[in-house]
Amino acid sequence: MSSNTQLNIADGVNVTIYLGGTFNQDSNSQINNLSQDPTSLLIMGTDSFNGTMTWNSNSDFYGAVYVPRAHVDFRSNSDFYGSITADTFEFNSNARFHYDLALAGLKRDDMEDLPYGIKSWQEELSSVFIEK
């Protein structure tokens, strides 16, 4: 998505986006899930998708991402509300992740065999600054 563009998803609508190639959401662009309900938006990679998903600066997101063979990169000044299933993911400067418990038992017709839940969690701090 180019900078300063929007994809608006109306309240009460369930949307699934399938990715077969690289996904790049440029700065200040939005996938606006107007309900702010992460259970209503699912981004899934195809079986062969092993690329990269990138959200650049100032791009908040409410939804679930299922790309088990891909890398997810969420960049500065953005909030992610939902869940991520990925090979690897990275959150950079001032990017924040908020797991939504509503996704714990999520089932939809297009993801029948993909139950969500926390399997593991590890927080890794690249640097720590302590001021005296």
Concise structural overview:
0% of the residues lie in helices and 42% in strands. It is mainly beta and 132 residues long.
Strand content: 35-45%
Class by SSE composition: mainly beta
What's the number of structural domains? Answer: 1
Distance between the termini: 44 Å
Mean pLDDT: 80
Number of strands: 9
What is the H/E order?
EEEEEEEEE
What proportion of the residues is helical, as a percent range? under 10%
Round the Cα radius of gyration to an integer and report it: 15 Å
Shape call = globular
* Biggest beta sheet summary: 7 strands, parallel
Low-confidence stretches: none
Describe the structure.
The chain is an all-beta fold and 132 residues long. It has one domain. It is built from no helices and nine strands. The chain has strands spanning 6-9, 15-19, 23-25, 30-33, 41-45, 52-55, 61-74, 79-91, 96-99. Strands 2, 3, 5, 6, 7, 8 and 9 form a seven-stranded parallel sheet that branches. It has a two-stranded parallel ribbon with strand order 1-4.
